[in-house]
Amino acid sequence: MNQQEICLGIAPIAWTNDDMPELGKENSFEQCISEMALAGYTGTEIGNKYPKDPEKLKPYLDIRGLSVASAWFSAFLTTKPYEETEQAFTDHMNFLHQMGAKVIVVSEQGHSIQGQMETPLFKDKPVFSDEDWQRLATGLERLGELANAKGMTIVYHHHMGTGVQTTEEIDRLMELTDPEKVSLLFDTGHLVFSGEDPISIYQKHQKRIKHIHFKDIREDVAKQVKTTEQSFLNGVKAGAFTVPGDGMIDFSPIWEAIEKSGYSGWIIVEAEQDPSKANPFEYAVKARKYIHEITSI
Question: For the domain with range 3-295, which CATH number is right: 3.40.718.10, 3.20.20.150, 3.40.50.300, 3.20.20.140?
Answer without folding.
Answer: 3.20.20.150
